[in-house]
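User: I'll paste a sequence; please echo it back and then give the predicted structure.

Assistant: Echoing your sequence first, then the prediction.
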Amino acid sequence: MTHLSLSRRHFLALSAAAALTPRYVYGAGEDATIVFVSDYLLKAAPAPGSYDIQIEPLYGNAEFLMRPTWDGPQPWLAESVTELDPLHWRITLKPGLSFQNGNKLDGAALKACLDYYKSAKENQGDPGATLIGSPTAIEVSGDLSVDLTLATPYPSVPFGCAHYAYLIFDAAAVAAARGDFASLVDKGIFTGPFKWSSIAAGKISYVRNETYWGGRPKLAGVDIRQVPDEQAGLAAISAGEADVLAYPALALALAAKGMPNVNYEVIDGVGFIGLLPNNAMAPFDDVKVRKAFSLAIDNDALAAGVGMGIGTAMKGWFPSNHPLALDFLAFDPQQADKLLDDAGWVKGADGLRSKDGKPLEARFYCYTAIGEGISTASADMVKKVGFAATVRRFESYTEIPPVHEKDGGIYTVYTESLG
């Protein structure tokens, strides 16, 4: 993957916004309901493991075993994730946990959840549970613990437990739905402080989980209302009709300046936007093409331009000032040209390359305004070394993986470096 900015999360709001569980309001009283606005909403409760479910931690509905932080994964639902030996790991839950429906979250319930992630076809986020080491066995080892057996050593199990692909849910309640995932809206399958109340056209409502294991939430709930676009969301905030617009395009920061009732919050996060080519299909099945593509992209220019100086250019999986950083990305279009020459891609009079009568294509797929900005700027950069680059924006990120897998191209994806 080619890693790009931005390594910060940004919000337009009447309120401050946290990256995972809601802590949103400047001076909001208890029992307030916070209103989000978004240009994309779920139409029904999705299957656990699907791409659509991964937004739920933002609204306080779902939680992870470990909390992703710049200091590494920290306990959340899990008290610890411990390496017993290179092929065995133990996950120990905190005592007193329960799902929103009142069912206990214990070792047996955790095993059922992880078994689902290992084998369910709905697990789009991490098929085969590779992020937790592709366990060959998951066994209950105590009332509050499960043990993972791996075929090969995998030291990043704690990081997988902090990944948004692993939202912990009540697998028994999901199994009882027999594939009718829309019926899960009122089943309280997650563990978070706010739970689904209703999912309807144009509005999703969450209400307080009165029995939340972390203590009774002070807010009454969270509403998400659909708006036609981000500008309409910004207008709703300024008019006092909404509280938070999460993940806006950075250009809205300029539009927000001076608007009444609007605060712009930039919060250090653990995620970044990256470019993910399909390495199994031409032309990216050639390592020289992949290297050339990466060398043609100027991350610093992306951070300064599309990122407006708010995002941070990344040189590897982690920001350069992080203890785990290993900077390996570089910008060298001359070397990119040489690699493509060596790979047999010939430049034509229009500056674009071809080989055996086929053009050197780079098709970018994105689904957000910021993703479109990154895709467009990156497309302009790779054109300079001979790629015939195009950008296609989809309505939802769930539409991209099938196209990416079938037709190849580059997925402009938001992902995490620490979880």
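The two ends are 16 Å apart (CA to CA). The longest helix spans residues 369-383.
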